[in-house]
Structures are given as C-alpha cells and as structure tokens.
C-alpha cells in the first residue's frame, strides 16, 4: 500500500528535456514520417511558396505537409484543431519544432496544394515501391462515395437557379436605388458591405453548366431522332424517350420545306418576269410557321412536352441540379438507399493494400472510368516496377511478365460493359452480377446463353470456373480494405475543401497518407530500411 502521494510540482523547471529529440522515443512513428518526407522530392510544394521581398519569413512547406500527413493519419482535418494540437500535443509540437503555424496558414496551404498533391502521391508511391511494396499480380478497381463540404439543401434545378438569379437581380436593383437616394448616384458611401457578386457568379456558373448540359442533351436527342426517322421513315409508334425530339425535327423540317417552296416560287416568279411573261399566277405559298405540316408537328410537340411535364410533376425534385456551395459536387447514392452530396472516387489497389491509382470524379456511374483507371494503373505499375529490382513470381501473381506488371484486374458489376471487357490491357475479371449470384451461377454451371453480348456471355461463363471465382472473391478484401481504413481509421468521411480541383488535391493527400502509413504499419518502412535507401 502506498504511504502517500507523488508530489504534483507544476512549478518544477525542465520537466521536459531541453532537447526536443528526447521528448519522444526514437521508435515513435512521428520520426519516421518526418524522415520520410525529408527524403521525398517536394520541389512541387516549394514551387507554390514565394520567398524573398518584404514581410516575415514563411513556414517550410516540408514541415506543413508533414503536419497535414500526421494530422490526417490521426483523424484531424480541421485547421483550427491542428493549430491547437501544435501547442498541446507533443508529436505535433515536434513536427513544427515548437513554432506553431496558425489555422489560416494551414488552411491556405492545404487549399493551394493543387497539382503538388498529385506529385506527393506519386512520390510516396515510389517510396513504397522502393521498399518492396506494390504487388501487382492481382489488383482491384472500386469506387467510393465521399461527402463534399456542402449540403444537399443547397442544390437547385435550372428553374430554381433562374428564379434565384431574378430575385438577386431585383434585390441588387432595390439596394442600388436606396444607395443612390442616400448617397447620390454613383456613390456607395464609406461602408464596406459584403460582396454579393460571389453568389451571383456561382449562380451564373451553375446556370451556364446546366444550359450547356441541356444543349448537349438536346443535340444528342436530335441525332437520335434523325437516326430513327432515317431508319423508319416515321412509320409506327416512336419510342417515348424520342417523341419530343422527333416532333422538333419534324417541325423544323416542315418549316424548312415550306420556306423552300416559298423561295422556289419567288425564284420562278422572278425568272418569268425577266422573260417578259408576267410572273407567277396566284399567291405564293403561305407562312412556313402556319402550314399544315408545321401545325401537325407543332401539335405533336406540344403533346410530347405536356406528357413530359406530367411525368416531371410526378417526380418532384428530380432532374439536373447544381449545388451553390460546391458546384462541382453531385448527389451520390450510398448504401441503404441514402444519398449524400459528394464525389465518387475511383481507386486501383494492389493486393498488399497500396492505392496505386486514384481519381476524384463527380460521376455517379463507375462504368465510364474503367479504361481511364486501367491506363493510370498501367502507368503506376511501370513506375513501381522501375523502382524495384526484379522479383520472383509469387503466388498472388496471376499474370504479367514474371509478376512485374498487372496480372489480373478485378472489378464489380458497376464496371460491366462489352467495351470494358474488350479494351486493350491486362487480363480482367468484371462481375456480371452480385457476388452471391455469381457463386450461385457457378454452382449451377449456367451457360453463356443468359447474355446477349458475346463478351459479357464469355465473362459469365468464365466466372463459373473455380479458378476465376477464387480470384474474383479476393476483390472485396483488396478493393474495400483501403476504403475502410480511410473512413474508419483515418476518419475521412467528408472533404474539407470545395471545388473539384481543391477536392482532388485533398483526396491525393489522403491516399498518400494511407500509403505511407500502410508502409509503416506493415513494417516495410523503418528507420533501418529508410537509411538503407539513402546509403
């Protein structure tokens, strides 16, 4: 039993060693992170900073990025929280050497990373490859939805944006009139009001995107309508999706045809008068807009638009929208039937847990990103193999040149298409349904007759074999483990910055942190291995 209590001597001098290197044990991970960043090529980060001239000296970019890496690895993304920890947490104090940057400096540095974050991701990937990581025999592609720094409530349709723009214009006009009455025309007074143009510009940009998107959709629909009319000659019942576009094409053709008749009549009339024959008899053809064919096409167009309007009324809130807070983000479906305002990340992961290729997109659909991510993964594979000595073919290498290239890429049914199955590149397994359905089909040994497209039918048949099924069943572990680590261990469920360029930079930083700490926790990155790389 203790005889008393230990004294709490808060006035004792040098409770901590005066040497900061003794504040934490030498095997603490923070020393590894500091040393690893010192060995990276961070020229892209330094290019962002301006030195020289008047003013105080700035903070070292290597220190700032080390601070962000350590913070993101420990579930801290708030710049204010990072600033606080730089004063209260020993590891954070060691990174900044006791000279804590304020939260504005941290936030501006993160927001300005831009392409330098992609370079950082590549440097960390190269470091991991030099440590022997990056098994490419089996890799997996998967998408992950991540929330944006924006609310779903800030979404507006085109009609909503136009209404808001009109309201703001009226409000600005009213404000201008009040200021003119108070200060005189052309004078604003001495006050510094908040600049309303920021919201105006966001609304204008969002409207511009929606109008351009609608114009592209209209042109696509018009091409489909012209193709349909060329094939069928407008015989039979047109498909519902094309009725409005077909009616518009027919109306334009009717007006153009009537206009051609008018021009031909006048040309003939002029020719006859030039020959002294007195010109054409009777009246010229009637107005193109009111001819019989035009009236019939206009009635069809009105009926198609009315039907589309009734369908839209039955589905309130749907249709193209833009977010006023982060215009590049989109509403994304997630598990459980819920929706978030966010982005869709595309990630290719090696079998030992490295994210070797990544892309932040605003596309709900994974399918268009299979080939772009495959090309990026091939580039990453070349970088990895160039950074490593030749290694023997291992058990998880199922193809490639002795395990030195991508052997087999795995993807779920969201990437299934004939184009993705037949694109150039390494061997691939793309699911033709849910995993449990694939297993059930394999048990039943269903044939390729279930699929119309030959490439998809061949993949369905291949997935009934034990070898292919065993390989595909590794997809979930390979692809989704990094996603779970980022969301649960790193706590990154929402981005902190807005706009696709800045959000992309933050996502590259996140993936670089994941890879660096994967190297640390797996034992590949140690003081000894890091020293060996530079010896």
* Low-confidence regions: 187-197, 392-403
Number of helices: 19
Provide the residue-averaged pLDDT.
81
Rounded Rg: 32 Å
The total of beta strands comes to 8
Order of helices and strands: HHHHHHHEEHHHHEEEEHEHEHHHHHH
The geometry reads as: elongated
Class derived from helix and strand content: alpha/beta
Helix content: 40-55%
Topology:
Layout: H1 29-38, H2 43-47, H3 61-73, H4 79-88, H5 90-95, H6 103-111, H7 115-130, E1 138-147, E2 155-157, H8 158-183, H9 197-232, H10 243-274, H11 292-313, E3 321-323, E4 330-333, E5 339-350, E6 355-361, H12 370-386, E7 408-411, H13 418-422, E8 427-430, H14 435-444, H15 454-462, H16 466-472, H17 475-489, H18 500-521, H19 527-534
Parallel strand pairs: 1-7, 7-8
Antiparallel strand pairs: 1-5, 2-3, 4-5, 5-6
Can you characterise this structure?
The chain has helices at residues 29-38, 43-47, 61-73, 79-88, 90-95, 103-111, 115-130, 158-183, 197-232, 243-274, 292-313, 370-386, 418-422, 435-444, 454-462, 466-472, 475-489, 500-521, 527-534, and strands at 138-147, 155-157, 321-323, 330-333, 339-350, 355-361, 408-411, 427-430. It is α/β, with parallel strands linked by helices and 535 residues long. It has three domains: 20-112, no CATH class; 130-150 and 326-500, no CATH class; 155-323, no CATH class. Helix 13 (418-422) links the parallel strand 7 (408-411) and strand 8 (427-430).
